[in-house]
Design brief:
The complex is a heterodimer of chains A (about 300) and B (about 260).
Chain A lengths: L21 H39 L5 H5 L10 H32 L2 H16 L2 H15 L6 H25 L3 H9 L4 H29 L3 H4 L19 H9 L4 H35 L6
Chain B lengths: L13 E12 L2 E12 L2 E6 L6 H7 L10 E9 L2 E2 L7 H7 E4 L10 H11 L4 H14 L3 H4 L12 H14 L4 E5 L7 H14 L4 E5 L3 H7 L2 E6 L2 E7 H6 L4 H7 L5
Parallel strand pairs in B: 3-8, 3-9, 6-7, 7-8
Antiparallel strand pairs in B: 1-2, 1-4, 4-5, 9-10
Helix pairs in contact in B: 3-4, 3-6, 4-6, 6-7
Classes of the chains: A mainly alpha (about 300), B alpha/beta (about 260).
Chain lengths: ~300, ~260
């Protein structure tokens, strides 16, 4: 068949571009339906979250006062000042420990260890990340509270929680360093950089936004964890005078107050839940802003 | 561009002397008993079809090949009489004297100045030395006039050709004797290629340059000597004009006349 259309001849049916019949009809129809179904599924998925936010806010806000947030009275049942401060203290130190372990681990597996050893560590980290938090808590209790003899204490809680958070930091740090384009690494080493100089001067600035994301995510997960702390430290009513004193924390407060019979305590549980929710949402927003800003600086990097 | 190199091959004047160099990955031989030498003030083009081992070859010359897991290198590469594969040689020092430029620009997410200063910062040079070396190497790489007023600009904002000349400046700043270039213009447009080629021409006055290229035309334009590699063997090496006009080996002739590759 000559591939020429004579003047005045009718168009070949294959040349008509607007037709949608037969199989093509069903395909375009399916495409259109998907365009509706996916947003609908999105609404279904997001509904529980919105409901949760609404429910907690509606329970907590009417009774929440500024006085409660700042009151550190050890006797008032609705004083949230102590758990707010101690949760902050726990998170600060646990995050520092997790960053130390996680980032050093990530650098080691990405750059310094043999591929075999690195694989073992990655597999262990994944296992630790997948371990139920209550198991991690129980491990912390056995190891730190009893074997090390620290008892129910701030330090046992912090170390256990940091163990729980470390795999999240480790995984992002490892991924951040291993996903640096190979030619960039070779260019640094080819310019006469020692591996550690490459990590410090070239690798870290490139990997930083991703690591930061991992750290914030680990914090968001850690601040909402209950089991690792419940099993390793009990409710202190004071800001712990020593690291071996028991300490209270927001998730622990929710856990104990919510199952209390008095409606007053349940209201406090809702207030603590509201605070936690605000913190977690804030952390997630900060992650997005910070990583977007840093990522912009890396635009155009060898892909 | 004529200049047949009249330095006798394999002479003591050679800066780099490659003897019976073989590279193997698992069962496969990538390079087989390659021997050749690179005299001072020469630009040698290494040509050959894809997969002939030319990139691997150039990466063995400053011990970059060992960064690819699983490659085994045997034979010797002598830099001014010292075997760079000897057990007491520090590969970091080798790479400081034998610089490298890659296929695509590999600038770091730092300022133009800091990119050029990178190799010197690694050895904690004084600020004054760095300033001067950065200026000089940017001038010699032919980028100075375009960037002298904003050295603090992010290097990633430069065009591809400018980034590649910045990479050349970065390699120059540590004053290496040898510069290895692995298809440095394969990601650049013709105008940027021309500028990088002009830079190479100038650099060969003081450096030994080893240029891997799949482009016979580029070899003809810039190199004094050409080596033709084919499936891991050095088929022939000689003055570029000789090799390109009167190749001795039929394989070489087929390659340069475009019958394969």
């Amino acid at each position: 068949m000559a591939n020429v259309l004579l003047p005045g001849a009718a168009l070949d049916p294959d040349d008509i571009l607007t037709r949608s019949t037969g199989r093509l009809f069903w395909r375009t129809g399916f495409d259109r339906c998907i365009g509706w179904i996916l947003p609908l599924l999105f609404v279904v998925a997001i509904f529980p979250i919105l409901d949760l936010v609404y429910y907690i806010s509606s329970q907590a806000l009417p009774t929440l006062t500024f006085g409660e947030l700042t009151s550190t009275s050890p006797t008032a049942i609705d004083a949230l000042g102590v758990p707010i401060i101690t949760t902050f203290e726990i998170m600060l130190v646990a995050t520092l420990l997790a960053v130390l372990l996680g980032v050093f681990g990530g650098v080691a597996t990405a750059e310094f260890l043999s591929p075999r050893a690195a694989e073992w560590i990655r597999a262990s980290a994944n296992m630790l990340a997948g371990a139920p938090s209550v198991i991690v808590g129980y491990f912390g209790f056995i190891t730190f509270c009893t074997y090390f003899g620290w008892g129910y204490s701030y330090i046992a809680g912090v170390v256990t929680l940091s163990f729980f958070m470390t795999p999240y930091v480790f995984r992002t740090a490892d991924l951040a360093f291993t996903s640096i384009p190979r030619p960039i690494r070779e260019a640094a080493l080819g310019s006469g950089a020692q591996p550690i100089q490459y990590i410090l001067k070239v690798g870290t600035p490139i990997a930083f936004p991703q690591i930061l994301t991992g750290v914030f995510l680990a914090m968001a997960i850690g601040v909402g964890e209950t089991a690792p702390l419940v099993l390793t430290t009990t409710h202190g009513v004071l800001i712990p005078p020593t690291i071996y004193s028991p300490v209270s924390f927001l998730t622990g407060l929710i856990w104990s107050d919510f199952s209390s019979p008095g409606s007053g305590l349940q209201a406090v549980a809702f207030q603590a839940a509201f605070l936690l929710m605000v913190v977690v949402v804030a952390l997630n927003i900060v992650v997005r802003i910070v990583s977007a800003r840093y990522r912009k600086r890396l635009e155009g990097l060898y892909q | 561009m004529t200049a047949a190199s009249d330095a006798p091959m394999g002479s003591d004047a050679a800066v780099l002397n490659v003897r019976k160099l073989s590279v193997a990955a698992k069962e496969r031989k990538i390079l087989d008993q390659v021997s050749l030498s690179f005299p001072a003030r020469s630009l040698t083009a290494v040509i050959g079809p894809s997969g002939c081992g030319k990139t691997t070859f150039v990466r063995t010359l400053n011990r970059m090949a060992e960064l690819t897991p699983g490659l085994r290198v045997s034979g010797s590469v002598e830099y001014l009489g010292q075997d760079i594969y000897a057990s007491d040689v520090n590969p970091v020092l080798v790479r400081r004297r034998i610089g490298m430029v890659f296929q695509r620009p590999t600038v770091f997410p730092k300022s133009i100045f800091e990119n050029a200063a990178f190799g010197l910062r690694l050895v904690h040079e004084d600020e004054g030395v760095i300033d001067q070396a950065v200026t000089e190497s940017l001038q010699r790489s032919g980028l100075w006039d375009e960037v002298k007023d904003d050295l603090d600009r992010p290097a990633l904002s430069l065009s591809g050709g400018q980034q590649q000349r910045l990479c050349i400046a970065r390699a120059l700043a540590t004053r290496p004797r040898v510069i290895l270039m692995d298809e440095p213009t394969s990601a650049l447009d013709p105008a940027a290629t021309q500028r990088v080629e002009a830079t190479m021409q100038r650099l060969k006055e003081d450096h030994v340059i080893v240029l891997v290229t799949h482009n016979v035309g580029q070899a003809a334009r810039v190199s004094d000597r050409t080596a033709f590699l084919h499936s891991g063997h050095l088929v022939e090496i000689g003055a570029t004009a000789e090799i390109l006009e009167r190749p001795k080996d039929p394989l070489t002739e087929q390659f340069i006349t475009g019958r394969f590759g």
